[in-house]
Specification:
Pfam families: DOMON. This protein has 97 residues and is an alpha+beta fold. It has a domain of 65 residues. Helices cover 21% and strands 37% of the residues.
Length: 97
Amino acid sequence: LADLFTKIKGMLLFLFIPCLCSGQATPLLLRFSSFLDPSNIVYLRWDHNEQEMITFELQVRTSGWVAFGFSPHGELPGSDIVIGGVFPNGSIYFSVS
């Protein structure tokens, strides 16, 4: 399970950088989707392939930052988290923990 989270963490960083830095929406063929909140602000799309690689796309209406995480038990301790956002000058940042 820890190996899966390591793969997901690396894949998330790979996924978010092209989506946010390109300035263009890249249409991905992702079969599954769901709003994660009752106000429909956080929208998650995902899919997987035969090699067990999971691809995520997170769309969030925000003016600051967003965090996305995975946990083997649904709790913060032991979770893998990606935090990203845009500074006021327009530069983009990411942090993986």
